[in-house]
Specification:
The complex is a heterodimer.
Chain A lengths: L2 H30 L14 H10 L6 H13 L13 H36 L4 H15 L2 H15 L17 H6 L2 H34 L2 H8 L4 H26 L6 H6 L5 H10 L3 H29 L7
Helix pairs in contact in A: 1-13, 4-8, 4-10, 4-13, 5-8, 6-8, 8-10, 9-10, 10-13, 12-13
Chain B lengths: L4 H15 L1 H18 L1 H4 L9 E2 L4 E4 L4 E4 L7 E7 L2 E6 L4 E5 L5 E2 L8 E6 L5 E5 L4 E5 L2 E4 L8 E6 L4 E6 L4 E5 L4 E5 L9 E6 L5 E5 L4 E5 L4 E4 L8 E6 L5 E5 L3 E5 L6 E3 L8 E6 L5 E5 L4 E4 L4 E3 L8 E7 L2 E6 L3 E2 L20 H37 L1 H15 L3 H11 L4 H9 L3 H15 L3 H8 L4 H37 L10 H11 L6 H29 L1 H6 L1
Antiparallel strand pairs in B: 1-30, 2-3, 2-29, 4-5, 5-6, 6-7, 8-9, 9-10, 10-11, 12-13, 13-14, 14-15, 16-17, 17-18, 18-19, 20-21, 21-22, 22-23, 24-25, 25-26, 26-27, 28-29
The chains are: A mainly alpha, B alpha+beta.
Chain lengths: 325, 573
């Protein structure tokens, strides 16, 4: 199949996936929350106002009309108004998504930047005490729930030593013109240290172990023998010859990880009060803010699918051996 | 010796696992945790949901900043204290008594009784009287304690010396007894009310009469001159618990619902002060210089600052029953059974207690049940679905494969954690929903892995041979191909057990776990919600360490299973 054909097929698949997910989401919410406006009673809305909102969301219509309305609105990026924020849902969701992505990407980059060289080094020292310790700690941080490591980190660095901020993205109060203005400050960096570190430690295990194991396989290959026979220094063999060839499975794992990054790590956002999308979904469903919950999840899924698609396309460029199936 | 082939097939992988030190450690730890889950009721020292209370001979001392906890006097509550000329005596429950000279160490008294003692009084001549339940009257002359026989069984609550040789005692049946210590004779004095209202406390006024207080605002003045008992109005109808009169004539009566009745001097009248807290007050003390203290339940202590009563910072759990003021030293004594909140680890509570006084060791032990249940049940479900989907898709190929694998692709577009959250939040947390939320998406990995394995297996000669021999599709799939992917299935099972345990802990941590169930994530949820986790390290550490150890041991096992599943790894290790 040609490259163009492959691209078109993948994009069509992505749209199909998104449609299925939107459908599941729609029926899930209709089953779980038959009357989403019930939550509004507490806010002092009377029956008439509730009826108005129900009409606005088309809740009085038959189910199939509601479904069509939901899909057309979603395609047009029209997600209604949040019950709790009293603001357009789309604006809230995009900002939260950006917050989640900046945390996740920083953590993933950090994890792979440390994990890949460390894994290569461990494979070189295989069987040694350092190797065992590396495997042990890699697996340990993968086994420890992030909300717990986060709490412990807050206890040590926030409460005990009080050298790092433990909640939010900026010291309150602050003014910022737009999102970038908020992000490009030292204060933000300072706030990001702990959450990024906690997520990175969790992700560290996979590049570390995958790199180590693939390197061990690569060591058996003929071209390594060849390099040794040439009398190259062991360092060069390790980093220039073996490591390059062992990178592929790590890149595959990186692709999967980035693809799912938009899903975020809800608990880390909760523990560090990071205003991310996962935390927003949790709050939205808790407060029965169904326009926000629905839109958050749909946009999150759309982002996951888009990232998956981009990563796939990049990957085929990176490794031509992957056929355009 | 020849073993059946099934055993021989099982021993091979087992031997490989046994060679891996980490896997052996993992197996041991996991068996330990499974045993912990199975024998949780036997292992736990307390009922994990029970709110624990303890009794303690608590002593609080007034420091510069507030009242500070001092070393306890025994395990029994302290009820009353008195002092004279440098000698102090404390009496408490279970026949407990403590004495000291000056400000030395408290020494336990050898009292010839074990009933609850409620009041103590020291006479100017150095004699002491202690009264309590079961008409217990103990008189100390010199150094010996003797019990004074009583005419009937009553519960005595207060005692005061009237003069060198006689004392007045009051009881819960409105009894007013006068004791002549020389003869041991007890005279019963008729109360002016006579309806059996409990009398709680008695104090000697400056004019030589005794003032008695009791329930429903009852106050009786006894005049030893003519032996009359007359009703007195203090201006309250609440239950009065304690009275104290200073040498100069200032008096303080405390009672239920923050009742504070004060008299500035013998000449002035009683006035009811507004209290900053309306809990029950059990003890009061007033000095001649206008100083006054009132103490009550839950560590409540108020001090009179000359214009109003002020709450003073204290320890907030113990129930205070008595005040002892000797010179500049001020002590508050208690405590009946109080909820043992946020106790650090001790011999009684190995992992301490939480904000409701529940035993954390028992909670952690019980938490293993839910973790393993969800972990293994969820993982079995995941592997069951994933393996079958993978087998069918890989074996049949064609349209079946397309449909199944597209489904898996769609599932990869759903973020796991938020989806589980929405599922649980929309359909009310229950064990079933939690297991479903954990397993509904995770099978996507298993399906992909098994399918790719089956794809290569189905082209092998043994499959073709089976087909030629006329084996049905089902037979080929489950009898010929399935055993070959079994190591991979076990590997995935182990990994997903770990993933499920973390997922359950995560949901429970967010407060979405199975309701009423005790789980490790739930313990951390409580800790975070209570806000005490920033100080109570014993609350945070154990559940996290247990989750980590369990998942880690499963991962160790899975690593050696990987060697079993992938023989290529065997050569290089």
């Amino acid at each position: 199949m040609s490259r163009q054909g492959y691209l078109i097929k993948r994009i069509l698949q992505a749209i199909f996936s998104l449609w299925i997910i939107a459908t599941i989401l729609f029926f899930l919410f209709r089953m779980g929350l038959p009357d989403p406006t019930a939550a509004l009673v507490t806010e002092g809305l009377n029956a008439e106002q509730r009826a108005a909102i129900r009409a606005q969301f088309g809740l009085e219509e038959p189910l199939w009309r509601q479904y069509v309305l939901f899909l057309t609105n979603a395609v047009q990026g029209e997600f209604g108004t949040s019950f709790s924020y009293r603001a357009p849902v789309a604006d809230i969701v995009w900002e939260r998504l950006a917050n989640t992505m900046v945390l996740m990407l920083a953590a993933i980059v950090l994890a792979y930047a440390i994990g890949v060289p460390l894994g290569a080094w461990l494979s070189w020292r295989r069987g040694s005490r350092a190797d065992t310790a590396g495997i042990f700690f890699g697996l340990m941080f993968r086994s420890a729930p992030m909300f717990w490591t986060g709490m412990i980190a807050i206890l040590i660095f926030g409460v005990g030593l009080s050298i790092l901020p433990t909640s939010g993205m900026r010291t309150l109060p602050y003014d910022a013109d737009g999102w970038w203005d908020k992000i490009l400050t030292l204060d933000f960096l300072w706030h990001a240290v702990l959450p990024v570190l906690i997520v990175a430690l969790y992700y560290l295990g996979s590049p570390l172990l995958i790199m180590r194991n693939t390197m061990l396989e690569v060591y058996g290959e003929d071209f390594i023998e060849m390099a040794r026979a040439k009398g190259l220094p062991e360092r060069d063999i390790l980093y220039k010859h073996a490591a390059r060839n062992a990178l592929l499975p790590v890149v595959t794992q990186l692709a999967v990880t980035i693809g799912l990054a938009a899903g975020g790590q809800v608990v880390v956002e909760v523990v560090f009060s990071w205003p991310g999308l996962g935390r927003e979904i949790l709050n939205a469903v808790r407060t029965s803010d169904f326009p926000l919950a629905q839109a958050s999840f749909l946009i999150m899924a759309a982002f996951v699918i888009t990232l998956n698609l981009l990563v796939d396309i990049l990957y085929t460029t990176l490794d031509p051996r992957v056929s355009f199936r | 010796m020849t073993l059946p082939p099934v055993f021989r097939a099982a021993i091979g992988p087992l031997r490989i696992m046994m060679q891996d030190r980490l896997a052996v450690i993992g197996l041991c730890v996991l068996s330990g945790i499974i045993a912990m889950a199975l024998f949780a009721p036997l292992l736990s020292t307390h009922d994990p949901r029970h709110i624990n209370e303890i009794e303690d001979g608590s002593v609080l001392q007034r420091g510069a900043e507030g009242w500070e906890l001092r070393e306890s006097l025994g395990p029994l509550a302290l009820n009353d204290a008195d002092h004279h000329e440098g000698e102090s005596i404390i009496v408490g429950r279970g026949g407990m008594g403590w004495a000291r000279e000056g400000v030395g160490d408290w020494v336990a008294l050898e009292l010839p009784t074990d009933v609850d003692l409620h009041a103590v009084a020291l006479s100017p001549e150095g004699r002491a009287l202690v009264v309590g339940d079961d008409s217990m009257i103990l008189l100390r002359e010199g150094a010996t304690w003797t019990q004074v026989p009583a005419p009937e069984v009553v519960r005595l609550r207060g005692v005061v010396w009237l003069d060198a040789a006689s004392a007045l005692m009051v009881g819960t049946g409105e009894e007013i007894w006068r004791l002549d210590t020389a003869t041991g004779a007890i005279t019963e004095i008729d109360s002016p009310v006579g309806r059996g209202f409990p009398l709680q406390s008695v104090a000697l006024d400056v004019d030589g009469t005794a003032l008695i207080v009791g329930e429903r605002g009852l106050a009786v003045r006894y005049d030893p001159e003519d032996g009359s008992a007359t009703l007195e109005r203090l201006g309250s109808s609440r239950d009065l618990n304690h009275i104290h009169i200073s040498e100069g004539g200032a008096a303080l009566v405390v009672g239920e619902r923050g009742t504070l009745l004060r008299r500035e001097s013998a000449a002035s009248g009683w006035s009811a002060d507004p209290a900053p807290d309306t809990r029950a007050m059990r003890a009061g003390w007033i000095g001649d210089d206008g100083q006054a203290i009132a103490a009550g339940r839950n560590g409540l202590i108020m001090e009179w600052d000359g214009a109003a009563w002020q709450l003073v910072p204290t320890e907030s759990e113990r129930h205070l029953r008595a005040l002892l003021v000797v010179g500049g030293e001020m002590l508050a004594l208690g405590s009946d059974r109080f909820v043992s909140r946020l106790l650090p680890p001790s011999r009684e509570h190995w992992f301490g207690t939480d904000h409701l006084g529940r035993d954390l060791f028992s909670q952690n032990v019980h938490g293993s049940q839910i973790a393993l249940l969800v972990g293994f049940l969820g993982a079995t479900l995941v592997v069951l679905i994933g393996t079958n989907v993978g087998l069918i898709a890989g074996y049949y190929r064609g349209r079946t494969e397309t449909v199944l694998m597209r489904t898996v692709d769609v599932m990869y577009g759903i973020p796991f954690e938020p989806f589980a959250l929405i599922l649980v939040l929309l359909f009310q947390p229950s064990l079933t929903i939690v297991i479903l939320a954990v397993s509904l998406l995770t099978w996507r990995t298993v399906a992909r892995l098994i399918r790719s394995q089956v794809l290569s297996l189905r082209e092998r000669p043994f499959v073709k041979a089976a087909r030629v021999a006329g084996a049905s599709d089902l037979r080929i799939m489950y009898l010929h191909i399935f055993p070959n992917v079994l190591p991979l299935v076990f590997l995935e099972l182990a990994i997903i057990v770990g993933v499920s345990i973390i997922a359950e802990a995560t949901l429970s941590f967010l407060g979405l776990g199975p309701p009423q169930a005790i789980s490790w994530g739930g313990i951390l949820h409580d800790a975070r919600l209570s806000g005490a986790w920033r100080t109570a390290w014993w609350w945070n550490l154990p559940p996290g360490i247990l989750i980590m150890t369990t998942v880690l041991s499963v991962f160790f096992i899975s690593r050696s299973l990987e060697v079993v599943a992938n023989p290529r790894l065997r050569a290089r290790q």
